[in-house]
């Protein structure tokens, strides 16, 4: 074998060494796995080119040719996958168009393996060291160009997007690798396939392009740490936090600072940190001095303070915690949290609570007023406006229910209907105002003569009705005589009248003692019947000369 034969093998070993270096020195993630698989496929091409030239058996040579191009198909798909993962566009893998690309790649792969009617590769001079290519090969080249075009489009989209500078830096390295590999592959095809009859074959073109593109990645991985997941995640996390973070070593030297802190504290990595520079104005200075004392005298303890900075017009919560490794303090981490919005919300909440309390008190007062008003309205609805006793409407509703209960329980009761005698004469002689006074005075006398369970209501102008529950006819007579006597004995003194005014009343008394009769009528009809009966009794008392009691017993 001549020197040219060993070129591809040498390139294979260099790629293999780089593969081992990457595998050993970096943390394995999904992105690493894609790249390492891609890197492994890069290694197979120069190996197959070397192995092809180490045998004279055409079948073995054809095997290595097919293996090389199968590898190149995988290499092409690997480029695309690596580009997609690196640019964070893994969602593209779920699209149906991507599935079509895989199907085309699989069909070409099957065509390379089967090589139907030597439509992919044809031997020359009895072997495949020198060979010619059929239409299936050019279909593969077209597939390669399409895949590279898609990769370049994805890279272009990432570069013009709002991605972070770190992502753009990684994509730039990928772009360089894609361009280098593309140029060398196309040169290989042009010089060694298109022009192979007019000039000698130049070996190792594609292998050299693969190596140079791989070197781009190795340099980027080693120098820019584009695959250092821990560093990337750490920096991304602390930079996206709204919490200001300051990391110090054991000499109080700044070793890490995030973006949230930079606008407020003029520090850079490598500067010496002095806690006294953070001393606030007098408003919270005493609390800060306690924090400073704990910070200096008890370095192994976690301590915090909330201070107000007039210059920032902000409440800042400062927390200092030790970084301990093996019971030895190797540094500190300080966090700075702006709590101004929290204070504003608390103040706003307190203000709203005060307003709500005031409104609640106002509502309670309104509710009380409404309750009193409703009570007054209710009282007005059931009482007589002049005398204050119940009105006829209330008495009617009350007695309808009482009659039913009395009938069921067979409890005796009585109804007195009384009328002031010659009341028209009082109005005519003394005026209606005096007449109203006489009515009110009479009502007071009647109320004083009744029991708590008795009901007094104004039946008409000068007519009043008294309901005596649980009262038999003899008791009812006594109460009627007592009421009549008290009214007659009552003397009304008026400023407008020189002498006192006295009145008498006529009474109709209805006593219900017999419950043998079953009332089939409604309570309303029954009550009307009772009112009609007691009204007849009153009429008889008036006709008999007034100032009398006429009783009807049932």
From TrEMBL:
Keywords, A to Z, come to: Membrane, Transmembrane, Transmembrane helix
Q: Return the PROSITE patterns for the record.
A: GGDEF
Gene3D superfamilies xrefs: 3.30.70.270
- Using the record's annotation, list all stretches that form the GGDEF domain: 411-554
Residues that span the membrane, as ranges: 6-27, 64-87, 99-116, 136-156, 177-195, 201-221
InterPro entries hit by this protein: Diguanylate_Cyclase, GGDEF_dom, HisKA_7TM, Nucleotide_cyclase, Rev_trsase/Diguanyl_cyclase
> Which NCBIfam families does this chain map to?
GGDEF
This chain's protein is named GGDEF domain-containing protein
- This chain's source organism reads Paenibacillus pseudetheri
The beginning of the lineage is: Bacteria, Bacillati, Bacillota, Bacilli, Bacillales
């Amino acid at each position: 074998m001549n020197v040219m034969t060993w070129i591809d093998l040498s390139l294979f070993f260099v790629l293999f060494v780089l593969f081992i270096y990457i595998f050993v020195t970096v943390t394995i993630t999904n992105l690493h796995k894609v790249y390492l698989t891609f890197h492994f496929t890069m290694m197979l091409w120069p190996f197959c080119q070397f192995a092809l030239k180490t045998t004279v058996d055409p079948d073995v040579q054809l095997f290595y040719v097919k293996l090389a191009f199968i590898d190149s198909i995988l290499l092409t798909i690997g480029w695309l996958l690596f580009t997609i993962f690196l640019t964070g566009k893994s969602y593209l893998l779920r699209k149906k168009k991507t599935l079509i690309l895989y199907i085309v790649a699989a069909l070409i792969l099957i065509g390379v393996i089967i090589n139907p009617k030597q439509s992919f590769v044809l031997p020359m001079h009895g072997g495949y060291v020198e060979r010619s290519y059929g239409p299936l090969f050019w279909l593969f080249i077209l597939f390669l160009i399409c895949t590279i075009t898609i990769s370049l489009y994805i890279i272009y989209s990432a570069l013009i997007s709002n991605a972070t500078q770190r992502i753009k830096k990684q994509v730039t390295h990928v772009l360089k690798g894609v361009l280098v590999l593309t140029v060398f592959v196309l040169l290989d095809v042009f010089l060694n396939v298109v022009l192979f009859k007019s000039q000698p074959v130049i070996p190792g073109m594609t292998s050299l392009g693969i190596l140079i593109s791989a070197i781009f990645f190795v340099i980027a991985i080693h120098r820019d740490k584009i695959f250092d997941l821990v560093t990337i995640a750490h920096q991304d996390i602390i930079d996206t936090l709204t919490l200001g973070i300051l990391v110090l070593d054991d000499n109080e030297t700044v070793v890490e600072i995030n973006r949230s802190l930079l606008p407020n504290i003029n520090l850079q990595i490598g500067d010496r940190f002095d806690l006294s520079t953070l001393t606030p104005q007098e408003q919270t200075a005493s609390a800060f001095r306690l924090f400073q004392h704990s910070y200096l005298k008890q370095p192994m303890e976690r301590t915090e303070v909330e201070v107000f900075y007039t210059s920032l017009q902000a409440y800042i919560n400062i927390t200092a915690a030790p970084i301990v490794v093996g019971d030895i303090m190797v540094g500190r981490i300080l966090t700075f949290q702006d709590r101004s919005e929290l204070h504003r919300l608390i103040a706003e909440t307190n203000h709203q609570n005060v307003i709500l309390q005031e409104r609640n008190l106002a509502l309670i007062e309104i509710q009380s007023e409404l309750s009193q008003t409703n009570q007054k309205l209710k009282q007005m609805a059931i009482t007589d406006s002049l005398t204050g006793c119940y009105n006829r409407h209330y008495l009617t509703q009350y007695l309808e229910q009482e009659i039913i209960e009395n009938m069921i329980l067979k409890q005796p009761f009585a109804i007195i209907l009384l009328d002031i005698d010659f009341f028209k004469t009082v109005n005519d002689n003394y005026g209606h105002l005096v007449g109203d006074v006489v009515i009110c005075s009479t009502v007071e006398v009647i109320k004083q003569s009744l029991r708590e369970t008795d009901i007094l209501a104004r039946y008409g102008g000068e007519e009043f009705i008294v309901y005596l529950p649980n009262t038999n006819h003899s008791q009812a007579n006594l109460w009627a005589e007592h009421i009549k006597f008290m009214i007659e004995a009552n003397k009304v003194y008026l400023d407008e009248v020189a002498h006192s005014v006295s009145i008498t009343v006529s009474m109709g008394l209805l006593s219900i003692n017999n419950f043998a009769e079953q009332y089939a009528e409604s309570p309303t009809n029954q009550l009307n019947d009772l009112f009609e009966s007691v009204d007849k009794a009153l009429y008889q008392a008036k006709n008999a000369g007034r100032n009398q009691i006429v009783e009807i017993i049932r």
